[in-house]
Amino acid sequence: MPTQHIFHHQQAFQLESGSILPGLQLAYTTYGTLNPQRDNVVWVCHALTGNADCTDWWCGLFGEGKLYDPREWFVVCANTLGGCYGSTGPLSINPITLQPYFHTFPQLTNRDIVRAFDLLRQDLELGRIHTLLGGSLGGQQALEWALLQPKVVERLVQVASNARHSPWGIAFNETQRMAIRQDPSWQTDTPDAGKEGLKTARAVAMLSYRHYNTYHASQGEPGQSITDNFRASSYQVYQGEKLAQRFNAYTYWLLSKAMDSHNVGRDRGGVEKALAQLKARTLVVGVDSDLLFPVEEQHQVQAHVPNSSFHLIHSNYGHDGFLVEFEQLTAAISTFYLQEKLKAQPDYEEQER
Known about the structure:
Homodimer. GO terms for molecular function: homoserine O-acetyltransferase activity. Its main location: cytoplasm. The chain has 2 domains: 3-164 and 263-352, Rossmann fold, CATH 3.40.50; 170-258, Rna Polymerase Sigma Factor, Chain: A. Helix content is 39%, strand content 16%. With 353 residues, the protein is an alpha/beta fold.
């Protein structure tokens, strides 16, 4: 099982906005053993509501006998800054006021978040990351980090993500935040502020995470006479209740805003110019039924990143296919590694001829 840790950074941490956190902590897990060469590091960036235990939400990839076997790899995954699973976030105590941050927690960008990750990396004395892996929001962060630290990240696997968040994706996120704002409790400084609105926000999000075919297969009615209390209706309520039990509206608001602000081209001369600077050997993975991060966004990344390849996952689960279709993802990453080994063989070019 992964081992849980807490990283403390006692110095002031300036954010892209100019705001300053007086210090921060990151909850993180490690899984496996770092080898003597220190070159077997896999770093995982989680999605919007994920946590630092990647074996919990990506169990198909991590574990004995799986792609990232702890007997071979040293896996690190940190709960994002602004999160609610042990890292400094809106429910944390502000050391200056000695009160929870709540609404006063400053806005974050993915660039802020990966700079915090990199402080942890330095504390762990990891000079190289063999593979940086992330999906969705985590894929945005992984791409940003690979650009910030080109000498550190050797390989990047970006799954169901993009280089700049789209107006379509921002509209989905804003609609969810509108639901949170409609909750009267959102105006209060309490741990449960916006909880009812969060339930509706999650229900809206499910429509972007899944696909028409997903709902048709899992929530369709078996009979012909029903006129109310549909399975799809109760499913939406269930998903809202389920998230509200483990998450909070502050973090949801904060991280959805970070997703919206994602733009690797900011201060780098635009997206295409920024992607052309990426040094890591890169695999870009898309899901054919993804409505939130459509495949054309992954094609854009692959088209402008040198030394990159693309793989398409086939799924009826929409965006969530990146979490569900682990056999296809395992095959894609395994092929990615194998191609690198083949190209490293002295007679590879002769074989190609």
